[in-house]
Every structure is written in C-alpha cells, then in structure tokens.
Amino acid sequence: MTSPRTSRFPYAKGPDGSRRLGYGADYNPEQWPREVWEEDVRLMREAGVNIVSLAIFSWARLQPTSDSWDFGWLDEVMGLLHAGGIGVDLATATASPPPWLTTEHPEILPVTATGETVWPGARQHWRPTSPVFRSHALRLVREMATRYADHPALVAWHVSNELGCHNVYDYSDDAADAFRDWLRRRYTTLDALNHAWGTNFWSQHYSDWEQILPPRLAGSHPNPTQQLDFKRFSSDALKGYLLAEREILDEITPGTPVTTNFMVMSGIKGMDYADWADSVDFVSNDHYATTGPRSRDELSFCANLTSGIAGHRPWFLMEHSTSAVNWQHINLPKRPGELARDSLLHVAHGADAVCFFQWRQSAAGAEKYHSAMVPHAGEDSQLFRDVVELGRTLEALAPLGGSVREPARVAILFDWDSWWASEQDSHPTSLLDYHREALDWYSALLRLGVRADVVPAHRTELGPYDVVIAPVLHVLPQTLAKELTRYVEGGGHLVTTYFSGVVDENDHIWLGGYPGALRALLGIRVEEFGPLADGDTVGLDPDPAAGVDGALTGSLWTDRIDVTGPDVEILARYRTGTYAARPAVTRRRIPDRGSATYVSTRLGADGLTALLPGLLAPAGVAGELPEEAGGAVEQVVRRDGGNRYVFLVNHGDAEVPLPGLTGEVLVGPPAAETLVLRPREVAVLRQTASPDAATQPHRTR
User: Is 678 among the domain residues?
Assistant: First the structure.
C-alpha cells in the first residue's frame, strides 16, 4: 500500500522522549474573554490535555481588513499553551473567508448545479478552483508560517479544515475552466475524451474543449462518465488546494509535519481520501457517531478504513464528540461509558491521538448545542469528570504510542470510484447504498468475532490476506481484474457481490454479460439484472454444504445466473421470486488454489452472519473470541514488536464474560479468573509477542 509521504507523527513521544498518546480538542479562545484563557489552560492540565488545534476559523480576527493584521491575541494564546506544556496543531485559518473578502470579491463564492450562488453566513463559502481566493488564502498561510515558524508550541500544521465538507462540488465558471484543464491532462485529446464519455450517444460529441461544462442542471440524466469525472476532478481540486498550502508550509517550516482532517464517516463521500494520503505527513480524521442499532459498527468500520488509508501507521483522531452533536434530527447525548468507549475504539484501530470538537462549549453561534470537553455546566459536571478520567486512561495506554494494528486475515475492499459510480442516476435501482453494503459485511464479521481490515481497493497488496471481500466493486479496471485473478490463482479466496465488475474506469460496460470483468473468474454469467421493488424480498435455500442453518432472505437485487465455468458450487438457490430455483450464491473452487464466490442479493448483516462461516471455512478463518462473547464484543490488536495489545470492546448493553483471555490488564475490569466486560466497557490487555511477527501478516494456504 502507498503510505503518507513520511511517517512524521508528532505525538507519539512527549518532551522527555517517553511514549504518549495525544489528547485534546479544537480550541477557540477568540470566542471567550481574556480572563477565561488561563482558566482553560488550568483545566486542560487537569484533564491531561497535551495538544490542541488552534485558529481554525480565525481568519477574520487575524486579518480584520485586506491591509491589516492582528496576531497579538494569538501570540498570547500560543505562549499560554506552551507555558502549560500543551502543543499546538496550528491551523492555517483558511477554512472560511472573512466578510471583507467576500464583499470585495464575490466571485470567490461557490455556485450550485442550478446556478445559485452560495452566499456567506455559514462556513466554507469559497470555490476550490478560485484563483482570487487562493491568492488571498496563500498570503495568509505565508504570514502564519513566517510568524510561527520557530514558536516552541508549534508541533504540526493543520491545513484549512474538513476540506470539501460544504464546498466539494462547485459549478462556477472557475470550476468549468479548471475542469477542462483537468480533462486535458487526463485524456490529452478530444478524441480520447469523446470515446471515454461515449459522446456519440445523445449527440454529445465535442469539437472544442471550450464546449465542455461541469454537469450542471440538465433536461435529463447528464452524461454518466462526465458525472464520474467531475467527482474525480472535484476531489482532485481540493487535494490540489491542500498541496498549494503545504508547499508554502514546507518551504518556510520544513521540519514541521503537515496534516488536514479527513472525514471518513457515514454520508461523506466526495473526497477520495485514499488518494489524498500521500499529501500529508500523517493522516487525521474526524468522525461523529450516527444513531441507530449499528452506530458503533459504523464507527469501527470508519476507524478501520482510516487505518487502511494511513497504511496502518498511527493516525490522529482530530475530532469527535464528547456527547451530543447539534446537526442530527434528534441529538441524543451519549450514555455512560460511551465517551470512553468511542475514543478507545479509535485508539484500537490505530489512533495515537484522541481529540474532540471542541474544548469549551460555545455560548453563541451555530454549534452552541454541540457538546465539548468543558460543557455549558462547567467543570462541576459529569461530562468533565468523564473527560478527566479518559485523560488518565490515555496516560495508562502511553506504551501503545507508535504501535501499529496487527494485520487481519480478512480484508474488505473499499473503492471510491465504485461508491461514486454505483449510486449515479439511470441505473437498475436508485436504492443501492454502497457504504451500507460494505458495512453489512463488516457487521457480520464483527458478530462472528472475525477481525478484518478495511482497505482501499487500488492501494492494497492483496497477497497477505486469506480472504478478500469486495462488495459492489462496480468499477473494475482491467488491471485490478487481473490482480484479483492472480490473487485467487495464488490461493486466495475472493468474495464479491451483485453489481460488481460491471464497468471499466470510463463507466463503460464490460460486454458479454455480467459480472463483466469477473465473469470468467467466477464461472458464471448474468444476462439481465433483477432489481427488487422497495420492500420486496426473496427467499433463498442454502445448500447443506454451505453450512447455513435455515433459510435466508434477500432484498434490493437479484440476478439471473447461469453457471458457465468448471468447479462451480451452488451454495444457495432462490426459493421465491422471478428467478426461483436458479443460483443465488455461487463459489468456484480452483483445484489446489483459491476460490471466487458471488452473492447476488443483499442479505443484510443478519443473513451474512449466517452465510459467512461457510465462505470463510475454505481459508480456515473463524472467530477468535469465546462463544460467550455472543457477537457483542469486538477484538482489535495493536503491537510494537515486543508487546501485543489486545482491545476488547463491548458494543452492547449487557455484561459479557470472556473466559480464557489472558494478559496484563492495562485498562478495564480488575483482575479476576474470568474477564467480565460491563456494558459499553473496554479492556486492554498486554501480551508478550514474538518480535519477528510484529507487523507483517504470515499467511499459509
């Protein structure tokens, strides 16, 4: 896997060289009078805070007018933090332009697909491709870097903030110009672009680059490859802006690492973070838990994917919440134990720093009801006592600093192109949810006690994994198709699903029947898709050899499968529906090698929990936790060569005994003959590990 450009992670060691984990928050002192600042530092020290992100939304205070600067207040805050032993992840303050800039230059404001201007009044009201915005923003970056280059509090640079959260897609004339330039670099000639976009359809053939526009509001479905390329371009445009800031920071402060906070979480899909990872010195992520019965599965999935993006090196949890957020329909507070559990689950998956939005809960503004480390109730509150307790827990886990996640035997491939393309319009169904399907497989593995890595599809070496699961791998370039074939022929076991292998990188159908580029490997052929109406289901009868106890239920999708290759087993057939008695789940075994399995319907987490043991069995993969875990406990392992740190996370609301697990308890229940996890509790055990097996998987097939 390609890794970030270096491994300069600044928080794994304290000033005295000892290991530590970072702990802190976004800090916004400009929201508070001067007398609060020293109190903040006192409380930070009490809580064990050792790092804060500063000046994220401070542009208007730092540059009150186009020709004036005011750094005095920031100088003072930096000095107070340094005196308190607290490092600063200093933002470049470019996240939101000040009112004077948008008044003088309204041409920097984004434009929607329908031609509406996105006006000031919230945040991130700037075009990623605006040369005017960039000139003013980079001037600020240069001022910041020059002023604080040698400040002893500075430990990292924080480029902008949550790039693309509100402005990933801009359809302005600036964006149109930049899109054309991007397309010239990608295709070189108009003939190549016309071929890639299939412009002979609907009389869309281009004879001049200037004729090309972003996919603005159209009378019908815009060209699908144009839409896909615009998504790629939009991600690249933001990455290009990140690189522009980084270039100045590297020039002036070459010894200070640079990061920006990704948003690997449900509902955020506009930025291809696997592609961005090379642009930062260490990966940082923001995550906010969703509501619902699988909210902590989703948290674990996203933390796991962040680790995959980071090349399984330590990463920084830049933001999450101590309790309720302010932007969901109903903002539920966290229950007892959830603040610590959520934090430690990120640590389990490789986070070497745990930070929140924000330090002190705002008294005014759009996020005043968003929780913080110091709530409106102040330090005399259960929430702040929990914050202090978490600080002590992270101190106890200091030996983990710099350790890495132990590789799993199973990988789930995650692919941004497939996410973008599979959910576009004019498809067999508009109900397909790529992220949900991937999460279904992950939830099923969690219930079975099977550890898995969630990894970027195009940036991962597959060979070390015994099982590779590729849900809805819709966009499949020839190179990846060949890699998957080599993987199976080399003894690996591939599992894929409906709507996989269907198109190439240009969103062109692989002709000859579905699943396109995977047809020969899977030994099947599908002539026509059979999507299901919303709410409709089909019954499946598993073959006894599949090891499934009872029938299965599918939804969303079915396929009319014909078996075409040798050595193909039918693991389940449709019992009901249009394709009753036809294959629903198939597996092709390659003698003395691996296997390739196809699941043609959405089984959901429950159905996959029943099916997966049979799919994992040929690879010899099974759950690692005692039966008493009951699917409620997640196990994650970090190691540093000499020690193995086993995290046991109770996702549920009941007590769970875990007999047979041994090790020194660093965090969790007191030592007893049998480890018992209370509801929502986390235990961390330290075990002795063999140094030569510290970081690399060791697979045998």
Answer: yes
Nearby residues of 492 by Cβ (< 8 Å), 6 or more positions away = 462, 463, 465, 466, 467, 468, 594, 701
What is the rounded distance in angstroms from the CA atom of residue 227 to the CA atom of residue 229? 6
280: in domain: no
Peptide bond into 515 cis (omega under 30): yes
**Residue 165 pLDDT level (bands cut at 50, 70, 90):** very high
The pLDDT score that the predictor gives to residue 2 is: 40
The pLDDT confidence band at residue 495, using thresholds 50, 70 and 90, is very high
For residue 459, give the CATH number of its domain: 3.40.50.880
643-697: per-residue pLDDT in tens? Answer: 999 999 999 999 999 999 989 999 999 877 899 999 999 999 999 876 554 444 4
- Would you call 561 helix, strand, or coil by DSSP? strand
Active site residues: 162, 319
Q: Which residue segment(s) compose the domain that 494 sits in?
A: 410-619
Exposure letters 278-302 (e unless 16+ CB within 10 A, then b):
ebbbbbbbbbbbbeeebbbbbbbbb
List C-alpha distances in Å: 537 to 226, 308, 575, 576, 603.
34, 34, 11, 9, 10
Q: Are 455 and 413 in contact (CB under 8 A)?
A: yes
- Ramachandran category for residue 369: left, alpha or beta (phi over 0 → left; psi -120 to 50 → alpha): alpha
Residue 110 pLDDT more than 90? yes
- CA neighbours within 13 Å on the CB side: how many for 678? 10
Phi then psi for 490, rounded to 5 degrees?
Answer: -90, 5
Percent of the chain surpassing pLDDT 90: 92
Could you tell me the CATH number of the domain that includes residue 656?
A: 2.60.40.1180
**CA-CA-CA-CA torsion sign (325, 331, 337, 342):** negative
What's the burial of 219, exposed, middle or buried (CB within 10 Å: 0-12/13-18/19+)? exposed
Q: Peptide bond preceding 358: is omega within 30 degrees of 0, i.e. cis?
A: yes
In this structure, the answer to whether residues 564 and 633 fall within a common structural domain is no
CA distances (Å), 293 to each of 60, 306, 552, 574, in order?
42, 22, 21, 29
* Of 559, 588, 619, the domain-final residue: 619
Query: How much is the pLDDT for 696?
Result: 46
Rounded CA gap, 593 and 355, in Å? 46
Which residues partner with 355 through β-bridges? 24
Structure token digits, residue 84: 């308190």
pLDDT at 693: 47
E strands present in 428-582: 452-456, 467-470, 493-497, 524-529, 537-542, 552-555, 559-563, 568-574
The answer to whether 48 and 374 are in contact (CB under 8 A) is no
* The pLDDT of residue 4 is above 70: no
- Predicted TM-score of the model (pTM): 0.96
Q: Are 406 and 644 in contact (CB under 8 A)?
A: yes
Tell whether 632 and 681 lie within a shared domain.
Answer: yes
The residue length of the chain stands at: 701
Gap between the Cα atoms of 656 and 590, Å rounded = 41
Asked if residues 176 and 111 have their Cβ atoms less than 8 Å apart, the reply is no
Same domain, 522 and 601: yes
